[in-house]
Design goal:
Elements lengths: L7 H12 L5 H12 L24 E4 L4 E2 L5 H13 L5 E4 L26 H10 L1 E6 L3 E3 L3 H7 L30 E6 L2 E6 L6 E3 L5 H16 L2 E6 L17 H16 L5 E4 L5 H5 L10 E3 L3 H11 L3 H9 L8 E4 L7 E2 L9 H13 L3 E6 L5 E7 L2 H4 L11 H14 L3 E5 H4 L6 H7 L10 E2 H9 L4 H16 L10 E5 L5 E7 L6 E7 L5 E4 L11 E3 L5 E2 L4 E4 L4 E5 L3
Parallel strand pairs: 1-3, 1-16, 2-17, 3-4, 4-9, 9-10, 10-11, 11-12, 12-16
Antiparallel strand pairs: 5-8, 6-7, 13-15, 14-15, 18-19, 19-20, 20-25, 21-24, 22-23, 22-25
């Protein structure tokens, strides 16, 4: 195998020596290449260089389950494509379909077979059809599999290679420092042909962790990745990747071997002929999250996890002080990388990412406000015992039901302001389907399924949804129309390129002000967001508008005089630009 530093083989060998120092890296690198490019399939001779050309201001995503829309007659994936075509074409460029594989629990995140589509949703032809019309993101649930899946069943029966696919814990292993996102017991006792074994389960006893210390596990996951890419997937979401590698006596989160595995996948993506993007899902504090950019050699994109709770706090408090301070300290994404911005997802609103950003008393205020809006709180276990809030379970639309002051009016305007912030800041914006649809909390779902997260995983009856969208006065119609309008306007502005220049402005504490500039420096946009229920008036000179240019609000067409006044109604957003 060639040893030139630029070659695929050399890069893989270097990483494999870090991951598996006791193994011969040369034959293992050849196995990795065969797993990802079987039968000698071609790959790039030189790696794709980091650039800002893999996304643009026209990019935005919708996050959805395959069965977020049902009617009892048609395949849910067919209904999803119909909804996308009718309502989101020209508004979003891509769709993240949450795990669409057969599963046993956690709404898809306990996968039984990575190579099949859940027949209750449709089949691979339906996935390919969506991927032909929208850029497709899928989940690589690589930390764990279902306890009822084929891999774990084969493990219990002692069938190679699966008899080495899972983590067996010995009685003397020190697990006291392990970081957990759940309160369930870490270990599960199971019967195998070799006797009883204690098996590692980070998330639940139905989600058994894979043993990446066995290279056969890595190779099998790479074969799955290739299968999904061949099916049209272009963005791979690495679910729960932070917990990938376990060493007793350590925290078992963000270990060097985990980062090396992500780097290896990045090498494969860089040499792939297809434009594959890696997105890491790490719901952790800022520094830990940003570490997955590596040195431009790990993830292309990382979730901006502090954003959902910070935007929520700003909207409920009517004050941007903490959001602005955090935003000002955020570094620009490295070349070839981007932030993945969102407020709502299939999970709850994570509270760990604001540790050290929001004071404890402000976190308590957010929790109490969400509870008063009918939301729930999920806890996590702390090392050494005890619990702490892990996430808030509430639809983001309903989380805007009332402010800290108890104000319940202007809910829709408050919500639209929160989503416009996501559109305005550096990065690629993504919107949960239930944000587009102003979906209320699903208490019936919680009662039926027994999990807090069901509150934000409603399944719309398509006939009911279409009726509401046809009613111009419904919450669903109002919110969808306005988000469509703003996103389409955004997609026409080069200043909103995910890597365009960003500067956070020091304005009234009720106004989040952001200056964005296009990569070619021709367009500037001053994005202003009034997060309060009060009218705010400010001098235009505070924005340093250049005198000899024409300035106009892109959202309402108003001409702005550089020496005049700018007035923001409660929760109003303004995009003031030197080009229309």
């Amino acid at each position: 195998m060639s040893t030139s530093p630029a070659t695929l083989g050399h890069r893989l060998k270097t990483l494999l020596e870090q991951i598996y120092p006791d193994l011969d890296a040369d034959p293992l690198a050849a196995q990795v290449i065969e797993a990802f490019w079987p039968d000698g399939r071609p790959h790039r001779q030189r790696p794709r260089k980091p650039s800002n050309n893999m996304w643009s201001e026209r990019d935005a995503l919708v996050i959805t389950y395959g069965n977020s829309i049902v009617d009892g007659q048609h395949k849910p994936l067919d209904l999803l494509l119909d909804f996308l075509d009718r309502h989101l074409r020209g508004t979003v460029s891509g769709v993240h379909i949450l795990p669409f594989f057969p599963y046993t629990s956690d709404d898809g995140f306990a996968v039984t077979d990575y190579l099949k589509v859940d027949p209750a949703l449709g089949d691979w032809s339906d996935i390919r059809r969506i991927g032909a019309e929208f850029s497709l993101m899928s989940d690589m649930v690589l930390n764990h599999v279902s306890s009822a899946g084929t891999w774990f069943t084969a493990y219990r029966q002692g069938i190679p290679p699966y008899n080495g696919f899972f983590i067996e814990v010995e009685p003397g292993d020190d697990l006291s420092a392990v970081v957990r996102p759940r309160t369930s017991p870490l270990l599960r006792e199971v019967e195998t042909v070799a006797g009883k074994r204690e098996i590692w389960c980070t998330f639940s006893h139905d989600q058994v962790d894979l043993n990446f210390r066995n290279p056969e596990v890595l190779l099998e996951i790479l074969r799955v990745l290739r299968f999904h890419i061949d099916a049209g997937v272009r963005t791979i979401r690495l679910d729960a990747v932070a917990f990938l590698w376990k060493i007793p006596g350590s925290t078992c989160i963000h270990l060097p071997q985990t980062h090396a595995v992500v780097k290896l996948m990045r090498v494969l993506a860089d040499f792939a002929t297809e434009p594959v993007i890696l997105l890491t899902e790490t719901n952790v504090p800022k520094a830990e999250n940003l570490s997955y950019f590596g040195r431009r050699d790990e993830a292309h994109m990382v979730y901006n996890f502090p954003l959902p709770p910070l935007v929520l706090h700003a909207m409920l408090s009517g004050n941007v002080r903490y959001l602005r301070k955090w935003l000002r300290a955020m570094p620009p994404a490295p070349l070839g990388c981007a932030y993945f911005n969102f407020t709502a997802s299939h999970d709850g609103i994570g509270m760990r990412p604001v540790e050290g950003i929001l004071p404890p008393e402000e976190i308590t205020r957010v929790i109490e406000s969400v509870r008063s809006a009918g939301g729930l709180v999920s806890m996590r276990a702390l090392p050494g015992g005890g619990e702490a809030p892990y996430e808030l379970n509430c639809g983001y639309f309903d989380a805007m039901s009332r402010t800290f002051a108890g104000e319940e009016k202007l809910k829709i305007a408050r919500f639209l302001c929160s989503q416009t912030i996501v559109m305005s800041i550096e990065g690629v914006p993504a919107f949960y389907i239930h944000s587009f649809l102003a979906t209320p909390n699903d208490y019936e779902g919680v009662a039926k399924r027994g999990i807090n997260r069901a509150i934000n995983r409603h399944r719309w009856s398509y006939p009911d949804l279409r009726e509401r969208l046809a009613d111009p006065g419904s919450n669903q119609s109002i919110v969808l129309r306005e988000l469509q309008r703003r996103l389409r306007r955004r997609g026409q502005q080069p200043a909103f390129h995910p890597n365009g220049t960003q500067l956070t402005l020091q304005l009234d504490d009720r106004v989040l002000g952001i200056w964005r500039q296009s990569l070619d420096r021709n367009q500037s946009v001053f994005a202003l967001h009034n997060v309060s229920d009060e009218v705010v008036e400010m001098d235009a000179y505070l924005l340093n508008l250049i005198d000899d240019e024409d300035w106009r609000d892109l959202l309402n067409g108003e001409i702005i005089q550089p020496d005049g006044k700018i007035v923001l109604a409660p929760y109003q957003c303004r995009w003031i630009s030197n080009t229309a």
